[in-house]
């Protein structure tokens, strides 16, 4: 089935997104979606937009949304970020692909943890970049000394996925400081759930490029919006790539919805706080059931039980209507990644666990 | 300004989209947008959607929209097209980039006319594919014999841009037939305004891959949707690339709006017919003013006047509030590309032309 495919498409193993089964209604704790809807102001904005204007191209530079994001972070970190330091993408995965295409040459090295976002190896393969995986320690933590003075680009997911564990800002800073000529990409998909953003570093270190997404903390998985913040130099590079690839990546509705999301900071803070609260409560309850629960700064937890194999538990939960994510991979094949849902969803998840553990342990 | 850029980003010349000036309100006849809004049913659908669901990822396979498009074309060509023959992209430019990444190896040759969509040379450069430009004849027509038995991939824009001239379906078929081992990409961004689609050929020729867009005939420039139709083999290749690049390229609103657009065929046919009617009338009037007007099958016309240089006319029109597109390029630097607007917009355009020609000729 590969008559016209090029050499790369013949051999590559594409990324596999979390399953979205349609056979029945599940409690979906498998793709790190936000259990709460986008801000009511966002929804109101979409419904009240002049949608006749969809006949016209959007602003290819996405300037208005870029300015809102720049202003938000300027206030947050008390240091000026300009819109020329903000790049908007069609989801943060698109931005990660663009980063490989903009900053990495074929044959370059890129360093990341052995356990991290499983899309990076696919990008490395697609763009012929040599990946070097640095093992997490036995507690699944990044040991930052292993990232000092490297001879290649660096990608750090913070908090890391699927481990949920965060580095401190000063640790990220140390990595940036020790690699002044290497691009340090900080993928902060989950940062709003308990870690500190490296946006604070971008005016001091021109090698730090932060990637964030609307998909998790802004309840926009269905909308496709992400952004990168860095030096004007790195952002200009991303724009050169974008305008050589697809000038109009962001549609008019996404732009308006994105602006409105950043304006409703109160809702954003409130839903994030709620998810953190549910996460902490869930972690405590799971520990009582005998689970090992890694110390999470994300909207998911990474758990393991010594009485039941994670792969089996995944299957039994699915049969019982609860979807979680299982990775059949070295080192983590006895762990489950569980998205933090509403209190009600988590209540059912824990009930099911109690039943299953009762059945399995006795 | 290129500290972290890779070799390609340092040298590439990005595509320059048509200008979208914000200094004042123009009559915009420069980016081939549709002068009519999307179908009222599309707008109603967006306003009545459950937007709380934006918290959830969209279907990464975009199956539902793919099925609607497959059914539409099955009926139209009276031959079964399945959803596995349909690929959906974030605008047709994204699909064109994906095509380069899926089917072309670095060092391959790709053939296209010397005068055609100016994004192709950017893709060729970005992906290290060797472009070979085949000159249009003196009437700006593609001579199909020049495309027989080639030793590289082929891209044909039909109708061609910015010339507006279409090939007949049997001419496209001849090119496909004479290059059975080469992929023949038919970029049909403007096909609904008067040419015949090569979708009719995809079940007979597995090397034909048709690209269409919602941006023009479906009034969706602001929404970002395109699709490709080909053999299951080529579409599977595009999906392998997509899932190695960005799994979720299409947001939930675009999917629903796209489905609704295909359902309202009556509005689609009506607005296209109206634009064709305005185009024919405009062409006649311009000829009376002494313009050479190429025979258009698109939603734009390509015009030239022997008494006033196109570059000057472009500037004077802009000063007078009318934007058209001017390409300062070999062979076409005395032509203007003018999008067909509403009758009212075209009326003002022609009035301004009459004034300017009076001033310039006398």
Automatic annotation (TrEMBL), chains A, B:
One of its GO terms (biological process) is L-histidine biosynthetic process. This is Histidinol-phosphate aminotransferase. Belongs to the class-II pyridoxal-phosphate-dependent aminotransferase family. Histidinol-phosphate aminotransferase subfamily. GO terms for molecular function: histidinol-phosphate transaminase activity; pyridoxal phosphate binding. The gene is hisC. Pfam families: Aminotran_1_2. Its cofactor is pyridoxal 5'-phosphate. The modification N6-(pyridoxal phosphate)lysine is found at residue 216.
């Amino acid at each position: 089935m590969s008559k016209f495919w090029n050499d790369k498409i013949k051999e590559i193993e594409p990324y596999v997104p979390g399953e979205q089964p349609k056979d029945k209604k599940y409690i979906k704790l498998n793709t790190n979606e936000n259990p709460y809807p986008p801000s009511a102001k966002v929804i109101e904005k979409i419904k009240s937009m002049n949608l006749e204007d969809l006949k016209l191209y959007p602003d290819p530079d996405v300037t208005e949304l870029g300015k809102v994001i720049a202003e938000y972070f300027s206030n947050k970190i008390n240091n000026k970020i300009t819109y020329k330091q903000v790049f908007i993408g069609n989801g943060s995965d698109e931005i990660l692909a663009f980063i490989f295409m903009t900053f990495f040459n074929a044959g370059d090295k890129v360093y990341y943890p052995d356990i991290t976002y499983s899309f990076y190896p696919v990008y490395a393969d697609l763009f012929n970049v040599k990946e070097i995986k640095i093992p997490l320690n036995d507690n699944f933590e990044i040991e930052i000394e292993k990232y000092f003075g490297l001879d290649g680009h660096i990608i750090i997911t913070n908090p890391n996925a699927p481990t949920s564990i965060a580095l401190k800002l000063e640790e990220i800073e140390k990595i940036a400081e020790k690699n002044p000529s290497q691009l340090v990409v900080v993928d902060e998909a989950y940062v709003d759930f308990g870690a500190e953003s490296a946006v604070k570093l971008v005016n001091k270190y021109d090698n730090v490029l932060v990637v964030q997404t609307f998909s998790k903390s802004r309840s926009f998985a269905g909308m496709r919006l992400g952004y990168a913040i860095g030096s004007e130099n790195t952002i200009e590079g991303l724009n050169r790539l974008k305008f050589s690839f697809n000038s109009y990546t962001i549609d008019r509705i996404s732009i308006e919805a994105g602006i409105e999301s950043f304006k409703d900071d109160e809702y954003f803070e409130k839903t994030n706080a709620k998810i953190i609260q549910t996460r902490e409560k869930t972690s405590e309850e799971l520990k009582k059931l005998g689970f090992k629960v890694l110390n999470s700064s994300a909207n998911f937890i990474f758990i393991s039980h010594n009485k039941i194999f994670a792969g089996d538990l995944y299957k039994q939960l699915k049969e019982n209507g609860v979807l979680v994510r299982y990775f059949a991979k070295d080192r983590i094949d006895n762990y489950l990644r569980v998205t933090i849902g509403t209190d009600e969803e988590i209540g059912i998840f824990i009930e099911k666990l109690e039943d299953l553990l009762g059945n399995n342990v006795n």
